[in-house]
Design goal:
Layout: E1 17-18, E2 36-43, H1 58-69, H2 77-82, E3 85-95, H3 102-116, E4 124-128, H4 130-142, E5 162-164, E6 167-172, H5 179-182, H6 184-201
Parallel strand pairs: 2-3, 2-4, 4-6
Antiparallel strand pairs: 1-3, 5-6
Helix pairs in contact: 1-6, 3-4
């Protein structure tokens, strides 16, 4: 299956993103072999930096490093996929500024909801940053399921357990992009979250 053949945006109504940077994973995966989804913030400004772009892309490099920090024996995104982890973003277009609006997150959440539904054996959802957390909370509220992650700083949630539709949910920090190499304290927490997730899907 290729997610990009199923998940598309036909309207592009958002004002604070670059629609020409719209990306949905085009990598071929067997849905039944995916047991975890790692959701980052937004698509990169340059398509060659995306997870599955190849050629040592930025998103691949930082994500692979995050898994290595957690003790995983990986060197490519394909290795991460082989562990059962599918990588995507909450917002499918590139940002025009530093952040994205609540309206944009909500608009893209419908695509993310459909994307998650493609994988029938999910055990874990990793929310890499505030945008992903807001997206999953919006999906849950729209379905009448209530907020998944409390509206407090992520570091205050360390050690707590959260669930969504039978899946374990990890609120964590952004692993895709240059900030990963800068914020070393968050990098350690990302590694711990990935290590915990790996245990659940082993």
């Amino acid at each position: 299956m290729q997610t990009s053949m199923v998940i598309r945006c036909g309207r592009f109504p958002c004002k604070d993103v670059r629609r020409e940077c719209f990306i949905v994973p085009g990598v071929r995966v067997a849905p039944q072999r995916i047991s975890a989804v790692m959701i980052a913030e937004a698509a990169p400004a340059a398509p060659h930096d995306y997870f599955y772009a190849g050629g040592d892309s930025l998103f691949e490099r930082t994500t692979v490093q995050a898994f290595q920090d957690a003790g995983a024996d990986v060197s490519t995104v394909r290795d991460v996929l082989n562990l059962g982890f599918y990588l995507t973003t909450a917002v499918k277009c590139g940002k025009t500024g530093y952040g994205v609006s609540t309206a944009t997150i909500q608009e893209c959440a419908s695509l993310l909801d459909r994307e998650l539904a493609l994988f029938p054996r999910l055990k874990v959802v990793m929310l890499m940053g505030d945008v992903a957390i807001k997206a999953i909370n919006y999906i849950a509220r729209q379905a009448g399921e209530g907020r998944v992650i409390p509206a407090v700083s992520t570091y205050k949630l360390r050690g707590e357990k959260f669930h969504f539709r039978g899946m374990r949910v990890f609120p964590s920090y952004l692993q895709a992009g240059p900030s990963f190499f800068i914020e070393k304290s968050k990098r350690k927490m990302i590694a711990q979250d990935i290590a915990d997730a790996l245990q659940l899907v082993a």
